[in-house]
Amino acid sequence: MIDLKLLQKDFDGTAKALMRKKVTLEVIEQLKVKNEALKVAKRAFEEAQAAQNEMSKLFGVYKREGKDIAELKAKVDTNKEKLVGLVETQREAEEALNTLVMGVPNIADADVPDGADEEENIELRKVLTPPTFSFDAKEHWELAEKNNWIDFEKGVKLAKSRFCVVQGMGARVERALINFMLDFNRERGFNEVSVPSIVNRTSLEGTGQLPKFEDDLFKIDGEELFLIPTAEVPITNLFQDEILTASELPIKLSGYTSCFRKEAGSGGRDIRGMIRQHQFHKVELVSITTPEQSEKVFEEMVSCASDLLTALELPHRVVQLCTGDLGFSAATTIDLEVWLPGQNTYREISSISNTREFQARRAKIRYKNGKKNELVHTLNGSSLAVGRTMVAIMENFQNEDGSINIPKVLEPYIK
RNA sequence: GGGUCUUUGGCAGAGUUGGUCGAAUGCACUGGUCUUGAAAACCAGCGAGGGUUAUACCUCCCAGGGUUCGAAUCCCUGAGGGCCCGCCA
After folding, report:
1. What confidence score (pLDDT) does residue A268 get?
2. What residue ranges do the domains of chain A occupy?
3. Which residue in A103, A197, A249, A355 is a FRET match for A148, CA 20 to 30 A apart?
């Protein structure tokens, strides 16, 4: 949630910043109007309430002194009637503002480049050189089936399209990857947590998936519960509505979960293979920091994920997202894109974001800075998406005969 | 799923004959005295959100309703937790 005070203090500057994230001027003006309307409604209510409270207190005094309360009661009753209307007005104003502001995305950092979409993202650097093959590189689904790593039909049989079954050496590599990543992250100071894969509405509102993106989520029928689209949700919300002490920050966590996404808007994209599944595994990094710490920790998270790819000998590039490609909650995002020889292109395998205080304000995560309570910064990033890492391994480590080598670092994990 | 008890500030824990309770006390925390420094001891401050230049003032004792001039305190509904029973990996 953005800081509404910014609109009061510097309307033009804030409006300009919001428009970089495609918020219309109309919405921004409505924010201001509704915010002011709420203030007026609140003041009116509070004045009447104060009078009410004062008169109620008099009852006690009168009773003790044995005075007649008839006149006072009449006054109170009149005021009470007035109060009912004022409460309603205030409630409506509150709701109007709230529905509006919950749908407004975070402001991008000033140094995030302008741009309409992913075409205008900026490549910061490349790490490792893509391999050259003396044969035509195959795509991962072909390799997966040839080596019996993945059975795509079985996934459809069990559930529906965009589900698959991983088996044999594929399943062992998958498990090895998860363990390797968690160990790697722990060495970098990210402590391991294991969290629920189902969360409530409050948690999803806290991290920004709700109310706007309900269509992307799997909802449990008859309950206000949802399958998580990313471990960012449960891990960040671990601290929801808490006041942390400065000395315990930064908190750096790493967790492995399955993730569930409806992929409602993705049409027929990546229908083949395991690039875009309804259920996939991911190891996630989440950090809770003071505002001063967040830059540094952000860099640590980017390095952590990038070094992981390097350790796995996977060529990749580091990309700074432009405003048009930034997510709802993000103030800045770095994507890591891994090289896929079969597709002859780089594909996203990790996305690391700093949401600044956007999620903290929604989820009420604060820390005690001296005497004052201040909002923390929350950061999240994929350590790596496991499925896409599998894809990358298959395509980069393929041999001419279609067999697949295993990255050296995984060997201790595959006994 | 049935029954029963319970839900208070960072934590623990008073408060349940409705008014002077946003709330005792202890711990933690912050500042100070003392000390070479620290600990201990002592003194002071210390729930959260909104509002104000600052006060005032408003809201919040799990959530939502209700009774009342007035509710942490009474009633209803729901959610979380404990225990007992049933069921089941």
Report:
1. 66
2. 4-101, 118-413
3. A197
Q: Determine whether A247 is an active site residue.
A: no
| Mean pLDDT across chain A | 90
pLDDT digits (tens, 9 = 90+) for A358-396: 999 988 898 888 778 889 999 999 999 999 999 999 999
Is residue A272 annotated as part of the catalytic site, yes or no? no
- pLDDT tens for A92-136 read 888 888 888 888 999 999 999 999 999 999 999 999 999 999 999
Nucleotides of B under 7 A from a protein CB: 10, 19-20, 29-30, 48-51, 57-59, 69-70
Inter-residue contact A289 to A377 (CB < 8 Å): yes
Per-residue flag: A67 CB under 7 A of strand B: no
pLDDT of residue A380: 96
C-alpha angle A188-A395-A142 in degrees, rounded to nearest 5: 135
Cβ–Cβ under 8 Å, residues A47 and A40: no
Nucleotide nearest residue A241, measured CA to C1': B48
Among candidate residues A71, A82, A75, A74, the one with its CA nearest the CA of residue A49? A82
Q: Does domain A4-101 have CATH number 2.40.50.100?
A: no
Which residues from the 15-34 window of protein chain A have CB within 7 angstroms of nucleic acid chain B? none
Neighbouring-strand partners of residue A237 = none
A403 catalytic? Reply is no
* Six-digit token string for A125: 């650097």
Find which nucleotide's C1' atom is closest to A8's CA. Answer: B51
